[in-house]
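As promised in the previous annual report, we have extended the structural survey to additional targets. Below is the entry for Vomeronasal type-1 receptor.
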Amino acid sequence: MELELRLIFKAVGFFSLIAIGIPCNVIILVVFIHVRRTEKKLLPSNTVLTVLALMNLLVIFSKGFPQAIHSIGIRNILNDIECKFISFTYRICRGMTICVTCLLSCNQCIILAPSTKFWLYLKQKVPKNISWIMVLLWCINGVIYPSCFLHVRAIANYTTSKYTLHLEFCNHDFMTFVVYVANGVAIALRDFFFVGTMTLASCYIVFMLHRHGKQVQGIRSSDKNNEKTMEYKASLAVVLLVTIYVALFGIDSCIWIYTLTVSRVSPGISDARVFFGSLYTALSPIVIIKTNKKLKTILMCKTKKGLLQSTNSRMNTTSE
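The corresponding structure token record, generated without further manual editing, is:
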């Protein structure tokens, strides 16, 4: 009975994540690709959001789907090559969601910062090189995970070492203690550096927002103030994204620390950790769609256009 309940909760959780995450991230991708093609340009922050949506989708396909399929009783459907590819894709894209969210918060921090010599240099260089920065982040993550191609195999009847991560359809056998620890340290350093950086950037953004709020009290709004208000609304959205990520990262880390203190980890605990580790892929696109002005404007225009076409079609049909 306990096993059935765990699998039911697991199925509901991961199928919900898929049902929400895929359409929301696809909407972001399609809209921003459309903007890039029609307007020939995309704001740096929107470029970062496009990459974040793509990474979210790949995390869902490489982790959400296997978890969901496993929860309904499907087992051992991947071979060694497929296991290596899926494992590498998930780990790279999960790492990129951390790095890209950090980049988003740092970019917004630079936008709000005063125009001193140092900040002015960053204001000029970062937006122009945002694509190259993301390529660099991709390379950093790629260097961390060569073990995916070396040590990941499909589940089968073979002996594994005690340094093995048993996943749904695959085993990640690190073989030796040194490789196991080195991999864990590299990932921990990456995670805590980028999470720490995005937290500091968000704290600075909150400080700037608070200072701006005091400055505009009692001042009648003008076009310039309205423009500033748009910037600060975007900043609030970035802070919200970072807050969600840090909260989920905190839950993930707490569960991970707990697993280190017990000799036998419950499957339910492992499932919960994977779920909270993947939940950002469904929550972040909702926040982006709700708060991004460009997205909201285009989606509203498309909706109104669709309603007008539907109304005209009905009227034509009636008149005939």
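The mean pLDDT is 84. The beta strands are 152-154, 164-166, 170-173. These points will be discussed at the next consortium meeting with the crystallography subgroup.
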